[in-house]
Automatic annotation (TrEMBL):
<dbReference type="Pfam" id="PF10531">
    <property type="entry name" value="SLBB"/>
</dbReference>
<keyword id="KW-0874">Quinone</keyword>
<keyword id="KW-0479">Metal-binding</keyword>
<dbReference type="InterPro" id="IPR011538">
    <property type="entry name" value="Nuo51_FMN-bd"/>
</dbReference>
<protein>
    <recommendedName>
        <fullName>NADH-quinone oxidoreductase subunit F</fullName>
        <ecNumber>7.1.1.-</ecNumber>
    </recommendedName>
</protein>
<keyword id="KW-0004">4Fe-4S</keyword>
<keyword id="KW-0285">Flavoprotein</keyword>
<comment type="function">
    <text>NDH-1 shuttles electrons from NADH, via FMN and iron-sulfur (Fe-S) centers, to quinones in the respiratory chain.</text>
</comment>
<dbReference type="InterPro" id="IPR037207">
    <property type="entry name" value="Nuop51_4Fe4S-bd_sf"/>
</dbReference>
<dbReference type="InterPro" id="IPR019554">
    <property type="entry name" value="Soluble_ligand-bd"/>
</dbReference>
<keyword id="KW-1278">Translocase</keyword>
<dbReference type="Pfam" id="PF10589">
    <property type="entry name" value="NADH_4Fe-4S"/>
</dbReference>
<keyword id="KW-0411">Iron-sulfur</keyword>
<keyword id="KW-0408">Iron</keyword>
<keyword id="KW-0520">NAD</keyword>
<dbReference type="GO" id="GO:0051539">
    <property type="term" value="F:4 iron, 4 sulfur cluster binding"/>
</dbReference>
<dbReference type="Pfam" id="PF01512">
    <property type="entry name" value="Complex1_51K"/>
</dbReference>
């Protein structure tokens, strides 16, 4: 993973230690002003912290884009009993890869954000729910929490008046994509199978252990120290009117230099592709995803749309997790969507019928189309099945499975029709799409 800097375009805030030797350590983080925002927050009234986050316009960075400060404000009045902060670090959707690098390269910005947020919501025990397969990140988070505790930054009797206590638990999940849904995450954290809960009640009222709980994404919480430390005006100077601030844009696929680009909201895909070295030599763009595999796909026509929540939504897609996957003309749309469909079918928790049964049938139809063994009417059947999943499943996983199929057929219907009689591998050979060629020494 690379971090590319371009004067006037990128805003390295969360990634400002990634290019520093041992930039993940407490020493490195403090050398660049780390934990100064926490010291400031500990002198502030909790309500004042929440009001600053609300005034900043920070929107959730996990996909939905819900105002972060407003989410905190939904908590009921403090009754003196436990309330919790849970950080959703269960990043696992195909193409999405911004939170894992953040925790790996700069874990202390997340810990500082947790401490400030906990102060704001009067929480004394926060949890980081991490996808368990990323053992290297788990170890790094554990080490960072230990560093912060030994330095007296978290623990008991914090702040000028010694009135703030905070414990942070890093929890490794078992690797279920459904646990990225906040209520399924809470069930898993409580030791049960990760299944989405019926809402209401919402987590703000009855979340972890049936107590008021804030669930926020890694990047959302990691963005808090910058706002508190530098001020609302600083944050407001970046981004667009309704999508303020900076964010990580993960560019992958058929570009010369894939990587993470931290930039203001409103940057365009054309600019990001240019910063990534352009489409790989000798090829041209075919389609791309603005927010990951669960969002409607875009083509060259949308390259100049500002990448902010409202502009992307008005163009017919979602900004989501800013997983910008780039595919050139050598790529089979059918093959790509088949892989995504297999993922969503495998990760369906099985709680509701539309998703449990529908994703299975979507996978069967997509597999036979990819193999060139489709049946007349299969494309219309795909539209019918997907339409009966979208908006009708218990949680958003069903929508995630249906969306790429519906948008793929809308944009490239003829390619789907051609696959009824011709395998995708013949129309689009695997070798042509490969980013790395096999060498003699690896055979």
């Amino acid at each position: 993973m690379t971090v590319t800097k371009a004067a006037g375009k990128l805003t390295p805030v969360l990634s400002n230690t990634w290019d520093q030797p041992n930039g993940y350590t407490l020493e490195a983080y403090r050398s660049r002003g780390g934990y100064q925002a926490l010291a400031k927050a500990l002198t502030m009234d909790p309500a004042e912290i929440t009001n600053q986050i609300k005034a900043s316009g920070l929107r959730g960075r996990g996909g939905a884009g819900f105002p972060t400060g407003l989410k905190w404000a939904f908590l009921p009045p403090d009754d003196g009993k436990a309330r919790y902060l849970v950080v959703n670090a269960d990043e696992s959707e195909p193409g999405t890869c911004k939170d894992i690098p953040t925790m790996m390269g700069n874990p202390h910005v997340l810990i500082e954000g947790i401490a400030i947020t906990s102060r704001a919501i009067r929480c004394e025990h926060a949890f980081i729910y991490l996808r368990g397969e990323v053992v290297h990140v788990y170890r790094r988070l554990l080490a960072a929490v230990r560093e912060a505790r030994e330095a007296g930054l978290i623990g008991q009797g914090l702040g000028p008046n010694g009135d703030f206590n905070l414990e942070i638990t890093v929890h490794a999940g078992a690797g279920a994509y459904i646990c990225g849904e906040e209520t399924a995450l809470l069930d898993s954290l409580e030791g049960r199978r990760g299944h989405p809960r019926l809402k209401p009640p919402f987590p703000a009222v009855a979340g972890l252990y049936a107590r008021p709980t804030v669930v926020n994404n890694v990047e959302s919480i990691a963005s808090v120290p910058g706002i508190i430390g530098n001020g609302v005006e600083w944050f407001d100077a970046m981004g667009t009117e309704k999508s303020k601030g900076h964010g990580l844009f993960s560019v992958s696929g058929h570009v010369a230099r894939p990587g993470q680009f931290e930039a203001p909201f409103g940057i365009t895909m054309r600019e990001l592709i240019e910063m990534a070295g352009g489409i790989r030599p000798g090829h041209q763009l075919k389609f791309w995803t603005p927010g990951g595999s669960s969002t409607p796909i875009f083509t060259e026509e949308e390259l100049d749309i500002p990448l902010d929540y409202d502009s992307v939504g008005q163009a017919g897609s979602m900004l989501g997790t800013r997983a910008l996957q780039v595919f050139d003309e050598t790529t089979s749309v059918v093959r790509v969507i088949t892989r995504w469909t297999e993922f969503y079918q495998h990760e369906s928790c099985g709680k509701c019928t539309p998703c449990r049964e529908g994703t299975y049938w979507l996978k069967q139809i997509m597999l036979r189309l990819e193999a060139g063994q489709g049946k007349p009417g299969d494309v219309d059947l795909l539209v019918d099945v997907a339409s009966n999943i979208a908006g009708k499943s218990f949680c958003a996983l069903g929508d995630a499975a249906a969306t790429p199929i519906l948008s793929g057929i809308k944009r490239f219907r003829q390619e789907f029709e051609d696959c009824i009689t011709m395998p995708a591998r013949e129309m689009f050979p695997y070798e042509a799409s490969a980013v790395f060629a096999e060498s003699e020494g690896t055979r």
